[in-house]
Structures are given as structure tokens and as C-alpha cells.
Design goal:
61% of the residues lie in helices and 0% in strands. It has 120 residues and is mostly helical.
Amino acid sequence: MEQLLSLLIGVLVAASVYLMLARSLLRFLFGLILLSNAANLTIFVAGRLTPGAPSLVPDGLDAPVGLVANALPQALVLTAIVIGFGLFAFALILAFRAYQSLGTLNTDEMRVAEPKDQKQ
């Protein structure tokens, strides 16, 4: 299972890099989300995959019995999902405002701070 997930992580990273190299701001945002999902999946896989073995401690014991999943990566991934969604929502609104004021999402045409040289 880990090999399949590592292959999926590689595909997600490759697709995100491809999207982030595009000149469109919207494609960059989708690439950023794919990259954050790949990072979340990496953290999740690092915490051991044990199907059917929750990380619960029985009453009266100090540690879980047997081989169980680590709860810390699961909590980190849950937090990262919430932060990633907030980042995506903010960036999407920022891109929408940039489109409204500049009329384009092409990053080469967004040259407000560095206007093209005009012949005088």
C-alpha cells in the first residue's frame, strides 16, 4: 500500500509542478493545492498505515496494545487541510480581485509595478 501511495504522491507533485509553471494564475493556484495535498499525503503515510487498528489506548493501560497508527500525523494532516483551505480561499479571492482590476489572469500581462517600456 505504501508503494502505491508513494507513486500517487509522485504523480501529484509532478502535476502540481506542471501546473505551477504555467503562466495562468488560476493554474498556479490549482498546482499549489495539489502540492499541499501531496504534502498531506506524505505526512499521513509517514505515520504508518494500519487498517482497522485505531490509535486508542484501552482503559487502565499507558500505551496502545499492538501495532497501531500514529495519531500525531493524523492531527497534523487535519490541521494542514484546514490551513490549506483557508490559503486557497484567500488566494482565490485575491486572484478574483486581480482579474477585476487588471482584466487578466496571465502573469506576464500583470505588470502594474513594472510597466513595459513605452517609446517616447
